[in-house]
Specification:
The chain has about 500 residues and is mainly alpha-helical. The protein is about 45% helix and about 10% strand. It has two domains: about 5-290, Lysozyme (Orthogonal Bundle), CATH 1.10.530.10; about 300-370, no CATH class. The chain has helices at about 15-20, 40-45, 50, 55-65, 80, 95-105, 120-130, 130-155, 165-170, 190-195, 210-230, 230-240, 240-250, 260, 265-270, 270-285, 300, 315-320, 325-330, 355-360, 365-370, 375-390, 400-410, 415-420, 470-480, 485-490, and strands at about 5, 35, 305-310, 310-315, 340, 350-355, 390-395, 430-435, 460-465, 500-505. It has a two-stranded antiparallel ribbon. It has a two-stranded antiparallel ribbon with strand order 3-6.
């Protein structure tokens, strides 16, 4: 028989259906009939397919790319860790009954109903055998992040074992990003992250901030448990969304049990809880499997955090104090465009290797005012482009006057007459006129020079208040002057300006 059919009939009380229909996260199932072919049924009964289709594999591979690990174990005396006297490359093998007893022992110490089955065993094989090196790296990273995780899990009265969820999500890689757009240690999607207070802008993504994302994860897990009152359903909803879990519950006849709804969940989510149980097991029985934590180098005790209160670029920091760019990027993934959008009202944290953090504090003002090589190059290009693109040629059309043309380009009639050396206001159809959209040409073409003793217009001073997104270059274009003019008029030492600053502009 080629297909097997699972048909579930059920009837909910009207009040229950009404509540689900009004749940914004509830999704009406496409069908109450689930069709599985013979191979899929076989795969469901074995753990292999569940492991191979899980995103866990991808995250484990990514943790291998972190370059800060040292080729030594965290504990200097490996003989102390190797209490079973295993050989260096020995991979221990255990009967299912051993796994069963060990997981039962762990279950007695938590409110999460840890169980052992074929799918859990498949993930134990992944962590303990197929990806042993990555498991050692995760063990090393646990010394970096678990103290913080446990602090906030306890604060929100959540099971401490939920710290292992981040291992399933990201393998404890702080720069992890999935193919579907989830980010950070706890792999928040954009919408969910914003719902729990994580800011995402063009320059900043707080899903990469370990502390802020941990707080958001605790709040989200707490909210999910209030809804389901079942930790495995909470984990499934964390992975695939409450709407998907609600749909699976309906297909299973309304039974709120993870293993009952398991066949109706997406393929990736089927492996999610088994992976969580397996990694919880291995992190508690790593030495029994001859697996030890690898030293994560700078990630453990080699960095420090400084607060930044002005906007600054990674290139300014790199060039001023010599910190490698790869270090700034790795330790600060929340700044997605390599710019820290800090201000006095919105200070931002910057994480650096310790030997550079003190240097940053000592040279902070110099770093803020420093113009990087890239910025200097951009200014040169902008000025060259400005000199060319600022000038346009306007061909006079029937019915146009100097007044209407000046209004069109937001300039004055006198500007047009000066730029085109016109003595009168008369123009003819087809005549070509040069128009400088900024109000004056960069080379000051046609500008009359005031004569001493009167007869020429004297320079006037205007005050410009810097708006969001403006730079000295854009302001200079607006007033028909140069960046150096503005810096000279205002005694500026750098090209950096802050929103709200008042600048003198001489016309």
């Amino acid at each position: 028989m080629k297909y097997a059919y699972l048909i579930v009939f059920f009837l909910f009380p009207f009040a229950t259906l009404f509540a689900q229909a009004n749940d914004p996260e509830y999704t009406e199932p496409d069908s109450l009939e689930v069709e599985l072919n013979e191979q899929e049924i076989k795969d469901l009964n074995s753990g292999k397919a569940v492991v191979d289709e899980s995103a866990v594999m991808e995250m484990l591979d990514l943790v291998s790319n972190i370059s800060y690990f040292k080729d030594v174990y965290l504990d200097i005396d490996t003989a102390v860790m190797n209490i079973y006297d295993y050989g260096k490359d020995e991979i221990p093998v255990f009967d299912d009954t051993v796994y069963q007893k060990r997981i039962e022992a762990l279950a007695r110490e938590t409110t999460i109903p840890l169980t052992f089955n074929t799918h859990v065993k498949s993930f134990i094989d992944l962590y303990a055998n197929r990806r042993r090196q990555q498991s050692s790296r995760m063990l090393g990273l646990s010394y970096v992040y678990f103290p913080m995780f446990e602090e906030y899990l306890a604060k929100y009265n959540l099971p401490l074992e939920l710290k292992y969820l981040a291992m399933v999500e990201s393998a404890l890689n702080p720069t992890a990003g999935s193919r579907v757009g989830a980010k950070g240690l706890w792999q928040f999607m954009l919408g969910t992250g914003k719902d729990y207070g994580l800011r995402v802008t063009s320059l900043l993504d707080e899903r990469y901030d370990p502390m802020k994302e941990t707080v958001a994860a605790c709040q989200y897990l707490q909210s999910l448990y209030a809804r389901y009152e079942d930790w495995f359903l909470v984990l499934a909803a964390y992975n695939s969304g409450p709407g998907t879990v609600n749909k699976a519950i309906i297909r299973a006849g309304g039974v709120k049990n993870y293993w009952a709804i398991w066949p109706y969940l997406p393929k990736e989510t089927r492996g999610y809880v088994p992976a969580f149980i397996a990694v919880t097991y291995l992190m508690n029985y790593a030495t029994e499997h001859n697996i030890y934590p690898i030293n994560p180098g700078l990630l453990l005790h080699g960095t420090d955090t400084v607060m930044v209160n002005q906007r600054v670029g990674f290139d300014q920091i790199n060039e001023c104090i010599g910190v490698p760019m790869q270090d700034i990027v790795f330790f600060n993934p929340q700044y997605t465009k390599r710019i820290i959008p800090a201000s006095k009202d919105f200070p931002c944290a910057l994480r650096l290797p310790m030997k550079y953090s003190l240097r940053f504090v000592q040279l902070e003002d110099s770093i803020y005012s420093y113009t990087s090589k890239a910025e200097k190059a951009r200014e040169i290009i902008e000025e060259k482009v400005e000199a060319v693109s600022d000038c346009v040629t306007h061909v006079v059309k029937k019915g146009e006057s100097l007044g209407s043309i000046a209004k069109k380009y937001h300039v004055t009639v006198s500007n047009i007459k000066n730029w085109n050396r016109l003595k009168r206001d008369t123009i003819t159809v087809g005549q070509k006129l040069k128009i400088y959209r900024s109000g004056a040409p960069m080379a000051q073409v046609g500008k009359s020079t005031p004569k001493k003793g009167g007869g020429g217009s004297q320079a006037t001073t205007k005050t410009h208040t810097v708006k969001k997104g403006e730079t000295l270059s854009s302001i200079s274009r607006k007033y028909g002057c140069t960046v150096n003019d503005i810096k000279k008029w205002n005694n500026l030492k750098s090209n950096n300006v802050i929103v709200g600053k008042k600048l003198k502009i001489k016309k």
